[in-house]
Specification:
By secondary structure, this protein is an alpha/beta fold. The protein has two domains: 168 residues, P-loop containing nucleotide triphosphate hydrolases (Rossmann fold, 3-Layer(aba) Sandwich), CATH 3.40.50.300; 65 residues, no CATH class. It is built from nine helices and ten strands. β1 and β2 form a beta hairpin. α4 runs antiparallel to α5. The structure holds adenosine-5'-triphosphate.
Length: 241
Amino acid sequence: MKKITVQFDTVTKKIGKKNIIDGISFTIAPGEVFGLLGPNGAGKTTALRMLTGLMKPTEGEIRICGYSIQKDFEKAIQHVGAIIENPDLYMYLTGYQNLIHFARMSGNVDKKRIENIITLVGLGEAIHDKVKTYSLGMRQRLGLAQALLHQPALLVLDEPTNGLDPAGIRELRQYLQKVAHEEGVTVFVSSHLLAEMELLCDRIAIIQKGKIVQVQKVESFVQNSTLEDRFLEVTTMNQKG
Ligand SMILES: Nc1ncnc2c1ncn2[C@@H]1O[C@H](COP(=O)(O)OP(=O)(O)OP(=O)(O)O)[C@@H](O)[C@H]1O
């Protein structure tokens, strides 16, 4: 498994006159579960969209394994699996047919891998139903299966627990921690839920109004509550506008 480092180097995204992302810098180590935590509208999806090449930064550089996503996109993106916003699924195909389709696109995925992934995301027999009949949580599980299919070395997941039930959230958490800590997969997730991120992540960056206001290891958070204090502070400030 390739070991993937992610670097945001003074990245800014300007839309109109507003800095949606405002000079953010951080580095994610290989095999780390890194969380981007922030209230609604803080800029999480924008940061993840830039990382996966869906949007270009106005300034600064994002590197995956040293390759610039802006200048060397093919090399930077080759080991990445991602779900940003709604997974891109074919509604009139079954879950299984969707996976076969994505497996063909990514090349080296065999039937056994598909079966393993179906077991892992827990879709069971529903995998043979049409996606249009799926609940939000089932679509999320299928989207995750799609992102994991080609065994990416960097997983980028925007609000991955959205729509999952508590058992699904726990399974996802255990899986992400296992692939990160045992196989060295780098995991980058976003969420607005502190408690969930605290259970999942090794390290958390708090983003507010496009700026990183704190980066902290979760273990040091458990010992003192500064991260929670900081998060509540920024979310309360945000509510007040
Ligand atoms: N294409 C765009 N044009 C104008 N403003 C945008 C655009 N995309 C995002 N924004 C604004 O940028 C800010 C950050 O949006 P973003 O979706 O990145 O936040 P988020 O942290 O992912 O929020 P949420 O938790 O609600 O998904 C918001 O104020 C949003 O309205």
